[in-house]
Amino acid sequence: MPALAGSPDRAPRVREMFDQIAPRYDLANRVLSLGLDQWWRRQAIAALKDCAQGDVLDLCAGTLDLTAMLVAGGTRQVHAVDFAEEMLNAGRAKLPPGAPVQIVSADARDLPLPAQSVDGIICGFGLRNVPELHRAIAECARVLRPGGRLVVLDFFVPQSALSRALQASYNRVLVPAIGGLVTGFRDAYSYLGSSIDAFMTRGEFEALCTSLGITARGREMLPPVASLVVGIRQPATVVTVQATGQDKP
Question: What would be the CATH architecture of the domain defined by 2-221?
Answer without folding.
Answer: 3-Layer(aba) Sandwich (3.40)
